[in-house]
């Protein structure tokens, strides 16, 4: 529906970019749907991990739908902006860990969606890039800031200023991808990884994600304070009591 499908399997939610006939290019309608789906998932306490995947074999997402934009006035493009920001922000701000399953082209907004995830599983066909400057734009889905934080200033500048494409081997070397998997297995491997995450304490995992996200770029002392807050959140929860009891009794925890 409107290019985004939501699936659930136990404690894992899968958000599917589902517009393969357009290489999952982000249209205005698709962006609205994605923001709504992310809000639904974020509010679901039963969801412990999220996979962001894509339909079709050729692309994860090739970014904004430039055919749609070509028919828009300057005013319409500016009016589209908050809709797109809500879509990218929806993925970025999910409280659960997000695993991106990338195959084929992940360009422009597609690369930014991957960067918005916590972990990127890429198969051997994956191609990453932020080519916005080649069409007179600046990455606008978080690309400059997310690449800066993930890759460092020099590597981010290389990627953004040249607009060049990276194959999966270089993406892995630079840190743009976290795991390389055989062609056609990105979704399967990402779901498996999300399943492992979902077995852990949802209170602890969410608190750890907040510490990791909020700690990027802050001074060490401030970061350790963020970690302290995360630790206290988990330590004072029923999950901590159940986790230690389960360990002592040599059984799997039943997270409350």
TrEMBL record:
Short name of one Pfam family: ECH_1
InterPro entries attached to this UniProt entry: ClpP/crotonase-like_dom_sf, Enoyl-CoA_hyd/isom_CS, Enoyl-CoA_hydra/iso, Enoyl-CoA_hydra_C
Keywords per UniProt: Lipid metabolism, Lyase
Highest rank taxon of the organism: Bacteria
Lyase is among the record's keywords: yes
Keyword Lyase attributed: yes
Xref: PANTHER family: (7AS)-7A-METHYL-1,5-DIOXO-2,3,5,6,7,7A-HEXAHYDRO-1H-INDENE-CARBOXYL-COA HYDROLASE, ENOYL-COA HYDRATASE-RELATED
Similarity field: Belongs to the enoyl-CoA hydratase/isomerase family.
Protein name from the UniProt record: Enoyl-CoA hydratase-related protein
């Amino acid at each position: 529906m409107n290019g985004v499908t939501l699936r659930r399997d136990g404690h894992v939610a899968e958000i599917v970019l589902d517009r393969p006939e357009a290489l999952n290019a982000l249209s205005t309608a698709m962006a609205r749907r994605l923001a709504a789906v992310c809000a639904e998932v974020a509010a679901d306490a039963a969801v412990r991990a999220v996979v962001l995947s894509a339909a079709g074999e050729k692309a994860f997402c090739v970014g904004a739908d430039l055919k749609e934009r070509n028919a828009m006035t300057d005013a319409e493009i500016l009016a589209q902006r908050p809709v797109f920001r809500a879509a990218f922000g929806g993925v970025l701000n999910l409280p659960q860990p997000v695993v991106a399953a990338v195959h084929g082209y992940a360009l422009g907004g597609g690369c930014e969606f991957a960067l918005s995830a916590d972990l990127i599983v890429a198969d051997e066909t994956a191609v990453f890039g932020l080519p916005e400057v080649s069409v007179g734009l600046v990455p606008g889905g978080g690309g400059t800031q997310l690449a800066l934080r993930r890759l460092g200033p020099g590597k981010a500048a290389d990627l953004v200023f040249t607009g060049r494409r990276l194959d999966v081997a270089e993406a892995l070397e630079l840190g743009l991808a976290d795991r390389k998997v055989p062609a056609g297995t990105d979704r399967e491997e990402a779901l498996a990884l999300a399943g492992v995450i979902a077995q852990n304490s949802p209170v602890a995992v969410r608190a750890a994600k907040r510490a990791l996200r909020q700690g990027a770029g802050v001074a060490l002392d401030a970061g350790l304070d963020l970690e302290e807050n995360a630790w206290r959140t988990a330590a004072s929860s029923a999950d901590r009591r159940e986790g230690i009891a389960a360990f002592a009794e040599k059984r799997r925890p039943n997270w409350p």
